[in-house]
Design goal:
By secondary structure, the chain is an alpha/beta fold. The protein has helices at 13-25, 56-65, 75-78, 85-88, 116-130, 141-150, 168-171, 185-189, 217-236, 249-256, 278-287, 307-316, and strands spanning 5-10, 30-32, 40-43, 49-54, 70-74, 89-94, 100-107, 134-138, 156-160, 176-181, 192-203, 205-210, 239-243, 270-274, 294-296. Helix 9 (217-236) packs antiparallel against helix 12 (307-316) and helix 10 packs across helix 11. It is globular.
Length: 318
């Protein structure tokens, strides 16, 4: 008998709330098994899923090590595994929340530093003047090294941050910071500015699958069912259903043709269109004398297969 697929979600904070809302909206509500302080949860709406509550950083590590099958965490944390990530973790779906930028920031008083090239010049001068390398405070060691190397910045050393990174320059612990920011307000409050070309990563929450985990046939089938649901819900939010009188089918089909794909499945006296095309499609139908046309918004739009689920299944043995 197959064991449950293990899904890890954040155990606290704003990201936990956003993930739980996303799952509940898809018809997959999560309830803590041990109350508010428990570390496991129950998912309704689908069988065969065991939910673990972990910190966002622990989820990234668990995916990489194969300790869980699926997880939701920030892309910034996953990318810290560098070039080895793609061999061990597959990003299945960007979730549109938990957005933040990983950036390079310098003191506002450094008026001549507006780019990474300027930072390179300052690093050279700093080393020549002090005999020491410029210090960069960050929790993101791998991404900082890779980004600085791409920009040819070499005269620096990393000071690993375990607390409030943005406070390091004011505390005299570093000259530069590499940190995550959503609005830039905390950097501003600490008299720091984002360097013009210093964007390392535009991060958001990702549903990811572990390629390092052991998968059996039952768990892969659960993955397919889970992805079908969350993708159908997301698809339903972007699509409208238009229906016209059956006797007007030929005229309607000709009028709606510019708003449909050649391989799109058809339905009797109706069609699914991108919600962004709703008004234009309705006007085209009206111009052809088709009406009345009713519009509805489907809660779910299911496709036969999930390409990302099949891609993961092909790798792990499905």
């Amino acid at each position: 008998m197959s064991e449950d697929l293990i899904l890890a979600i954040p155990s606290k904070g704003r990201l936990k709330e956003q993930v739980e809302h996303w799952l509940a909206d898809a018809g997959l509500p999560v309830t803590n098994a041990g109350g508010g302080r428990g570390y496991s949860a129950r998912m309704d709406g689908i069988a065969g899923v065991s939910v673990r509550l972990l910190s966002a950083s622990d989820i990234a590590a668990a995916l990489y090590e194969g300790e869980v099958h699926l997880g939701v965490t920030g892309e910034d944390l996953l990318r810290e595994f560098g070039e080895t990530l793609d061999a061990r973790v597959m990003l299945l779906r960007a979730l549109g929340f938990g957005r933040a930028d990983l950036v390079v920031a310098a003191p506002k008083s450094w008026v001549d530093v507006e780019s990474m090239a300027d930072l390179d010049d300052v690093a050279h001068l700093y080393l020549a003047r002090t005999g020491r390398r410029m210090r960069v405070a960050t929790k993101y060691l791998a991404q900082t090294r890779s980004f600085f190397a791409r920009h040819g910045v070499a005269d620096y050393r990393i000071v690993e941050s375990s607390g409030a990174t943005e406070g390091a320059p004011a505390a005299g612990a570093a000259e530069i910071v590499v940190d995550i920011t959503s609005s830039g307000a905390t950097l501003q409050a600490n008299s720091l500015k984002i360097i013009g070309d210093g964007l390392i990563l535009k991060s958001q929450a990702q549903l990811a699958g572990s390629l390092a985990a052991t998968w059996d046939a039952g768990q892969i089938e659960t993955l397919r069912r889970l992805m079908a649901i969350v993708e159908a819900r997301a698809r339903g939010k972007t699509i409208c259903s238009l229906v016209w009188p059956a006797e007007q089918e030929p005229a309607a089909r000709a009028a709606i043709q510019p708003f449909t794909q050649p391989d799109q499945a058809t339905r009797a006296n109706g069609v699914l269109v991108d919600a962004r095309d709703l008004f234009a499609a309705s006007q085209a139908l009206a111009a052809a004398g088709v009406g009345p046309v009713s519009v509805s918004h489907p809660a779910y739009v299911f496709e036969p297969t999930s390409p990302v689920a099949e891609s993961l299944a092909a790798i792990v043995g499905g």
